[in-house]
Design brief:
5 helices; 190 residues; 39% helix; 21% strand; seven-stranded mixed β-sheet; globular; 9 strands; alpha+beta
Length: 190
């Protein structure tokens, strides 16, 4: 079974998380919408309705990794759906039943979806390199939160992004990093 994405399906698009880090962040940043995958990667595709949005591919060159980090697949794309078999031989299934809203397709405005997928891509790349920043992660967190605020992100958007990021990154000091972000947001607001 396949979905013809975009205008032929009334604006239904697929968010395809090619990096595992992107799939982990998508679980926390995207709205609770229909999600699917296969046993080895159960939540790497998300269905959303976003009429008029174009295909967007976020790419990043990293050794041994696919270049595509996360993509919005729209017009002229076909995507396998649950009930199909992946070329690897694994069955494609909807997300586990314990994930809220796993069969409803949520609608989002174009600008909001583009921002969220951009954040997922940036967060995935940051997560991929996070452990290499040993000794500087505190300062990096402060700088990134401040940069986001100065770039027009709202305090709530900064909090949501970093809360999701630190929920999935393997950082033993994640609790302290979230406190750093809260402090930065408060100082910026003042």
């Amino acid at each position: 079974l396949a979905l013809v994405c975009g205008s032929l399906s009334s604006g239904v698009v697929v968010i395809d998380c090619d990096w595992s880090e992107a799939a982990q962040l998508a679980q926390h940043l995207l709205p609770h919408t229909a999600a699917y995958g296969r046993a080895s990667d159960p939540l790497n595709h998300y269905l959303l309705r976003c009429p008029g949005i174009q295909t967007i591919k976020h790419k990043f060159a990293a050794d041994g990794r696919r270049q595509a980090v996360v993509e919005i697949l729209s017009d002229k794309h076909l995507c396998l759906l649950p009930g199909s078999q992946h070329p690897s031989g694994e069955d494609i299934t909807f997300a586990p039943a314990n994930r809220p809203g796993n069969t409803k397709i949520v609608e989002m405005p174009q600008e909001a979806l583009q921002k969220l997928v951009g954040w997922i891509a940036a967060g995935a790349v940051l997560m991929h390199h996070w452990l290499t920043f040993e000794g500087t992660r505190h300062d990096l967190t402060l700088s990134l939160a401040g940069s986001c605020l100065h770039s027009g992100w709202t305090a709530q958007q900064v909090a949501d992004f970093f809360r999701a990021f630190f929920r999935v990154v393997e950082d033993p000091e994640a609790h302290d990093r979230i406190a750093c972000v809260k402090g930065t947001v408060q100082r910026f607001s003042e």
